[in-house]
Each structure stands twice: as C-alpha cells, then as structure tokens.
Specification:
Number of domains: 3
Bound molecules: adenosine-5'-triphosphate, magnesium ion
Helix content: 40-55%
Radius of gyration: 32 Å
Strand content: 5-15%
Structural class: alpha+beta
Number of strands: 10
Shape: elongated
Number of helices: 12
Amino acid sequence: MYIQNLEQWMNNIKVTNQVNADVEVVNHSPLVMMGKGRQGAVFQLTDDICVKVFGNTEDCDREYYALSLGQQTTLFPKLYGKGPLYIVMEIIRGVDLREYLQSQPLTKALSAKLIEMLITFKKIGYERIDHHKRQIYLQPDGSLKVIDVARTIWRDRVYPYPRKLLTSLGEQNKAIFMAHVQEMAPELYMEWLHYIRMEEISRQITALLLPQEPDKDKIKNLSNSLLTTADEKNYVNLLQGLVHKVFKEEWIKTMLARGADPEAVMAKIDEYWDNLEQGFEARHPEGERHYEGVRRFEGDRHTKDNRDRRSKGAKGGKGGKHNGGDRHNDRDRRNDKKDKKKDKKK
Ligand SMILES: Nc1ncnc2c1ncn2[C@@H]1O[C@H](COP(=O)(O)OP(=O)(O)OP(=O)(O)O)[C@@H](O)[C@H]1O
Ligand SMILES: [Mg+2]
C-alpha cells in the first residue's frame, strides 16, 4: 500500500512554482511523474491512484475544495486524501478532448455533454464555468471527466461565458459547437453571443483609447470653466447646497438607524422645508426673491409638488423644475440600500 510511504515520498519531492512556466520538480522519491503544469506535478501511486504535489498550499487547498464540491457527480477524480501540499486522487484515463478532436468530429452528442458539464459546474457552485479542452477527458463509455479545477473557485472576476472552452476548440470546432448550442439551447446561445459582442466592442474601444495621448494643456485650460469658487455669490450658494446635502444625508441616516420608515423620513424633511418656505413667503409677500440661497436649497427638496406628481404616476426625470436630479439621487440611494440588503441576504 502507498499510504505508509506517502509522507516520506512527499518529503522527497520538491515542487517550486515558476513565473509563467511549469513548476520545477526535484524528485528523490521512487514515484514516476505523469505530468505537470504551472501549479503542480502529478505522480502515479498505484494503478488507479495518483498524487498531485503543489508548489504552494493555496493552490492545493483550492483544488481540493473545488474537487470536493464535485464528489457527488461523475465528472471529477475521486479524492483519497490531502496534505498541505498534495492531493491524493483517482487517475483519470481516457483521451483528452484536444487529442480526440484532432482526428474525430465534434458531434452534437459531444456538444450536449459539454453543455451538461457546464450545467454541473454551475450546480455544484463553481464560479468559473469554463475549462480548456485539454483538461476534459472522454471516457470509453462516452462520458466526460475533468481535471485541474483549482481555478474554478474563489474568483472575483470571470468571463460570463465559457471563453476558454470556446477559444480552445479552435475556429472550426468553435463554430460547430456554437451552431449546436444555437440549436439545442437558443437562449444560452443568444446570451453567449451578446457577451462575445460586448467583449469585441470593449476590445475595439480599448485599442482606440490606449494609444491616445490626451492634450493636457487643452484640458487644463478648458477645465477652468468647471471651477466654482472664484464667483463669490455662486460659491456661497453652492456651499449652502453642500451643507444642506450633508445635513439631509445625515438626518436620513440617523432616522433610518433608528428604524424609521424611509418614506416617512422623506415626508418629514419635505414638511420641514415646506414650513420654512411658507415662513419665507409670509415674510416676503410680493414673492420677490431677494435671497437666492433659499431657492437654491429647493434643488434638494422632495417638494410637495413633486411628491404629488410622483404619486400620480408622472415620470420624474428632467420634468421637475428644481427637483429632477435630486429625486433621482434619493431613489438611487434607496436602491443602493436595497442592493446592500440583498447582498447581505446572499
Ligand atoms: N487525476 C489525474 N489523472 C491522470 N492524470 C492527471 C491527473 N491530474 C493531472 N494529470 C496529469 O498531470 C498534468 C498536470 O496536471 P494539472 O493540469 O492538474 O496541473 P496544473 O499545474 O494544475 O496545470 P495548470 O498549469 O493548467 O494549472 C495533466 O496535464 C495530466 O496529464
Ligand atoms: Mg491547475
């Protein structure tokens, strides 16, 4: 049995990660290497069992966790054990898809199995629903198995379609596979096509933007028109607006923290400003606006007028004379909060 010698053999194999190259392997054990990649080297332990030795513990933990997610399916090698830098697993035989497609056609049945594979990836919780064709093995009974799954989990950003699988198939087989997807899963096909187009457009824009050298002097001169502090009267208004924004923001935060209903808080603020305005109008019966600051403040209010219009189903947008923009901000904020709540629930 391999088990009594395993620890000793593992001490006699040193695997070191390289930059942009396969791992470096120093093997003083009697084990025979079956293959290696950038994350580890694989050695045969018995007829059916191998051990993958990693260059670092994070890759090892990731791959083990990813494989463990798939143990209830038939897609992955069975797990037999783990150390800080190694995983003992089933040897996957058969012919990998890269070899297979060199001489055999990509049939609709095979495409269906690939889609099923992606469905299983999603079902077991993989974040990257994608694999290179050389990591996919066809079994004698026509089923698939996959190896090298560490990169499927603990991901922040992934392509939202199986880009690696598609590109690894090569132009011809990619077109055949896409035609099969179109026929068998038309909605999925449309979605992939959408992402492929978006990617292409992004690539074109980046190619355009990257070499562009902006005219810094021109930007500097023209951007002076955005400055606001020099015109004192306007500056005072803007500063008042800013203070009001902060005040309102903090008020809402405090009220929400106390468990108040957001709509009720908004209504209270509106009422407060309505009262202020009524007081102002009483003091200035001719309706003359000597003090522009008050007018400016209205830009921040949920005026009764706007509230009424909204409740009648009128579109906000730019319609509100003073409030259009800020009403949107308030809505955005509420939506942000909703999103945050949703995220927390997840
Ligand atoms: N369970 C297995 N059964 C049989 N052969 C295996 C198994 N796992 C890996 N191999 C062989 O070892 C090679 C390297 O394994 P693997 O691709 O998992 O390494 P990796 O370093 O994670 O690769 P990558 O650089 O792509 O991440 C494979 O190409 C394959 O030939
Ligand atoms: Mg790998």
